[in-house]
Amino acid sequence: MEILSEGVLLGLGQPLLDMVLKVDSDFLTIYELKSNNGIHATMDLHNQLYKVVSNHPDLKLIPGGTVYNTLKVVQWILGQPKRTVFIGSIGNDENGKTLINCCDITGINSHFQIISNEPTGICLVLLTNDDRSLCTFPGVSNSLTKEFIQKPRSLMLLDQANFFYISMFYLVKQYPLVQQIVEYACARNRCVVVNLGASFIMTEYIDEICKLLPFVDLIFGNASEFQHLAQALTLKTHITSEIGKYLANFSKINSSHERLVIVTDGKDVVTVIQGHSVQEFPVIQVPLGHIKSTNGAGDAFVGGKDSYRCNILL
């Protein structure tokens, strides 16, 4: 494998500590949650949920957040330390220290803005059989500032990167900063990769998504997220390939190459669209008894693709 430069892939997103617990479907119903879905905590009911989960004897703590999950897989595949950079914000607490240590162990070069008096973000990961439901308490994970991005080390890391990976979760509170970063990348002919993140983002932040898309070169998402995006865009189709074609040919600032759209659908085919070309790739079936958890499965898929692109495009 070719020796890549340090910091070739920069991830921008929420550093989160995952709190993982196995539950049943009735547990999700009590707290108004759905399987295979993700939300931000907004109600007192979710605060009650946090208390129950955080005190459960079977709770597991795992570093997470969609960007960390993806960068960890990229590092594992590349086998070269510090080829990825994670920029985000954490609290000055034990959870924040855990995230820094885990980045060091996995070879990710972390560049975190540390914010006092507020907690590091956490995500409740509730596993039901082979599915999972996510409930995020962002803490300071959305508190990265423009001033921090303008610091010399931040600018150096931005300049080193050829690929910028951003989760749409970051649009919820950080749209101006995300827009600034993608404009920076696009002006320098760098590749911008986004992960749609969750269905609710497609409907609640459609205006921001439409402003962001012209700067994006590669879009990842699952079939449900693309369906919700199509509804928000008032498209008159529910066919995955047609939705993908629309997005692949959506207005694009950098016309040097076509946008690539990749749609996953669990055990069903992966659909890849570029221009008006559509390809479908069968998924290798994994026996149910071999599945430990689907949490982070989509992030791992993105990590595999990102590591491949890092190798073939440099």
Backbone structural class: alpha/beta
User: What does the average pLDDT come to?
Assistant: 89
Overall number of strands? 14
The main β sheet shows up as: 9 strands, mixed
Low-confidence stretches: none
The strand line-up of the biggest sheet is 6-5-1-9-10-11-12-13-14
Task: List strands and helices in order, with pairings.
Elements (H helix, E strand, L loop, with lengths): L8 E4 L3 E7 L2 H6 L6 E4 L3 H11 L5 E5 L1 H13 L5 E8 L2 H13 L2 E7 L5 E8 L2 E7 L8 H4 L2 H9 L2 E5 L3 H17 L3 E5 L3 H6 L1 H7 L5 E5 H10 L7 H9 L11 E6 L2 E7 L2 E5 L15 H16 L2
Parallel strand pairs: 1-5, 1-9, 2-7, 3-8, 5-6, 9-10, 10-11, 11-12
Antiparallel strand pairs: 2-4, 7-8, 12-13, 13-14
TL;DR?
With 314 residues, the protein is an alpha/beta fold. The protein has helices spanning 25-30, 44-54, 66-78, 94-106, 146-149, 152-160, 171-187, 199-204, 206-212, 223-232, 240-248, 297-312, and strands spanning 9-12, 16-22, 37-40, 60-64, 84-91, 109-115, 121-128, 131-137, 163-167, 191-195, 218-222, 260-265, 268-274, 277-281. The strands form two sheets. Strands 6-5-1-9-10-11-12-13-14 form a nine-stranded mixed β-sheet, with helices on both faces. Strands 3-8-7-2-4 form a five-stranded mixed β-sheet.
Structural features, described:
With 314 residues, the protein is of the alpha/beta class. 39% of the residues lie in helices and 26% in strands. The protein is built from twelve helices and 14 strands. The chain has helices at 25-30, 44-54, 66-78, 94-106, 146-149, 152-160, 171-187, 199-204, 206-212, 223-232, 240-248, 297-312, and strands at residues 9-12, 16-22, 37-40, 60-64, 84-91, 109-115, 121-128, 131-137, 163-167, 191-195, 218-222, 260-265, 268-274, 277-281. The strands form two sheets. The chain has a nine-stranded mixed β-sheet, with helices on both faces. The protein has a five-stranded mixed β-sheet with strand order 3-8-7-2-4. Helix 7 runs parallel beside helix 9. It is globular.
